[in-house]
Design a protein that fits this description.
Layout lengths: L7 E7 L2 E2 L3 E2 L27 E8 L8 E10 L4 E11 L9 E5 L3 H21 L8 E6 L4 E5 L5 E2 L9 E6 L4
Parallel strand pairs: 8-11
Antiparallel strand pairs: 1-2, 1-3, 1-4, 4-7, 5-6, 8-9, 9-10
Length: 178
């Protein structure tokens, strides 16, 4: 339920003006704004120079109109520059802050590299650690501050005292900073 059937509008702002509100009508995909899908639109406008923000939103009409927007990338065909506007939020009256329109500032290229690095590290960490969360595993968290264990059992029981001698428990070390 992250896609939308509502009408989506965008306004692009640059150093030489803006496009005004434009409806995104014809995607290169047969059905637009589906969950996990990248849609590509052509918007004709005068050259706006360097872009600095967009306003994007939808009409709020139709069933299941809420929309989770990851990002918008605008390619300037004259300068061959890509402008990225990160959102990663809901445009939905019943989710997040209830707004169905967002004003997004252009994202600096260094932020994009940092986000890509963070996402890569997150994937690597999950690949290395997901075995701990397989069905049937008992997890023990050790708190160095209290020198105590918290044990999460496969049957959903939580043991605040834990069992240091349980050889089948997976021990995770947690630092608590106060």
């Amino acid at each position: 339920n992250a896609g939308t059937e509502a009408d989506v509008f965008i306004s692009v702002y640059g150093e030489r003006g803006d496009t005004g509100s434009r409806q995104l009508l014809r995607s290169q995909k047969s059905k637009k704004f589906l969950k996990g899908q990248t849609d590509i639109f052509t918007v004709e406008a005068v050259h706006l120079g360097h872009l600095y923000k967009i306003v994007i939103g939808h009409s709020g009409l139709g069933s299941g109109n809420g929309w989770f927007l990851d990002k918008v990338v605008i390619k300037d065909p004259i300068t061959d520059v890509d402008y990225t506007f990160l959102c990663h939020r809901w445009l939905d009256q019943g989710q997040d802050d209830g707004n169905i329109a967002r004003e997004l500032a252009v994202t600096a290229p260094s932020m994009l590299l940092g986000r890509q690095e963070l996402e890569l590290k997150r994937e690597e960490t999950w690949a290395a650690e997901k075995w701990k969360f397989q069905k049937g595993n008992t997890l023990q968290f050790y708190n160095r501050l209290t020198r105590g264990f918290i044990c999460l059992n496969p049957d959903s029981r939580v043991d605040a005292f834990g069992d240091k001698k349980n050889k089948y428990g997976k021990v995770l070390f947690i630092n608590v900073c106060i």
